Amino acid sequence: MSNKRISLTRYLVEQQRVDGHIPSQLRLLLEVVARACKSISQAVNKGDLGGVLGAASTENVQGEMQKQLDIIANEVLIEANEWGGHLAAMASEEMDSIYVVPNRYPQGEYLLLFDPLDGSSNIDVNVSIGTIFSVLKKPEGSIGVSEQDFLQRGAQQVAAGYCVYGPQTTLVLTVGDGVAMFTLDREQGSFVLTKENVQIPPDTKEFAINMSNMRHWDAPVKRYVDECLIGKEGPRGKDFNMRWVASMVADVHRILTRGGIFMYPWDKREPEKPGKLRLMYEANPMGWLVEQAGGAATNGKQRILDIQPGKLHERVSVILGSKNEVERVTAYHTGL
Ligand code: AHG
Ligand code: MN
Ligand code: MN
């Protein structure tokens, strides 16, 4: 990378102009999402001073108690995106159904999906949290816009990313041309390119899973983790380290930075649910980022990006990160 500072704006203009990767409407959309993330970052930073911490007294469609910041972040993303003319509709983890761009604004051809605030349990304890987003194109020829238009496989995404609000605020993005990271320069108020062509090492000695659920796991996951825990003396022949932030953004950010494997697998707590994490707001965007960085993402049986969603708020089992490790856990599931 040259020593010139490259802003997100310039990066996107070049993706559009030089490389022809993104149309201008998509560029605008990504700029607006980044602006919304800046505002959310401000709110997160203020914490108690901004009166944004603590629980709201509402539940979301998935029966989870909402935090004030879940609702604030959702509103910021909607207000920032509804008027620009680039979107047809939005869908969010925090809304029961899709939000169609109101008639008073022009309708564009893109669909935006987001987890406005990921890692809600970490908000009040001052641990990294984030926003995850995914962009789809409205299917050709569909009139108006409906929930059906959103039910596309992750492989159809045209852009995906997240913004992590940690010691630094970092926006991580793919438009299908590798993964780039941008750090927020608070004095300038802009995101500056700080890493390009991010690569996840294929092997790792670090795994991330909520160990308190061990007794509920399925045999293949238990086998994988048991083998990690035996370390040098076991079949893996090396010692493993464990990390679990409980904010997917932070765990995935670590994996994009230094490798590792992240698992939130199906378990026996609520056997009828395919997993805890959401396919459209969490697994698909993170799965694509990880693949774009040379890693892999599966549900234990198939590639996440190949799953045909049946409904907007669908949940999924997630195994992602360093390629050889993800392939190993997947092979333990499929018996191959
Ligand atoms: P959200 O805050 O958007 O509901 O997502 C939380 C998710 C994810 O970020 C994290 O990996 C996982 O839930 C943590 O779950 P546990 O508390 O069960 O470990
Ligand atoms: Mn989440
Ligand atoms: Mn959330």
Topology:
Elements: H1 8-17, H2 24-46, E1 55-59, E2 65-67, H3 68-81, E3 87-92, E4 99-100, E5 110-118, E6 129-137, H4 147-150, E7 159-165, E8 169-174, E9 180-185, E10 190-195, E11 206-208, H5 219-230, E12 241-242, H6 248-258, E13 261-264, E14 277-278, H7 279-292, E15 296-298, E16 315-316, E17 318-321, H8 323-334
Parallel strand pairs: 3-5, 11-12, 11-13
Antiparallel strand pairs: 1-2, 3-4, 5-6, 6-7, 7-8, 8-9, 9-10, 13-17, 14-16, 15-17
The structure holds 2,5-anhydro-1,6-di-O-phosphono-D-glucitol (AHG) and manganese (II) ion (2 copies).
Explain what this protein looks like in three dimensions.
The protein is α+β, with helices and mostly antiparallel strands. The protein has two domains: 8-195, Fructose-1,6-Bisphosphatase, Chain A, domain 1, CATH 3.30.540; 206-334, D-Maltodextrin-Binding Protein, domain 2, CATH 3.40.190. The protein has eight helices and 17 strands. The strands form four sheets. Strands 4-3-5-6-7-8-9-10 form an eight-stranded mixed beta sheet, sandwiched between helices. Strands 12-11-13-17-15 form a five-stranded mixed beta sheet, with helices on both faces. A two-stranded antiparallel ribbon has the order 1-2. It is globular and about 65 Å long. The N and C termini lie far apart (41 Å). The model has no long low-confidence stretch (mean pLDDT 96). Bound molecules: 2,5-anhydro-1,6-di-O-phosphono-D-glucitol and manganese (II) ion (2 copies).
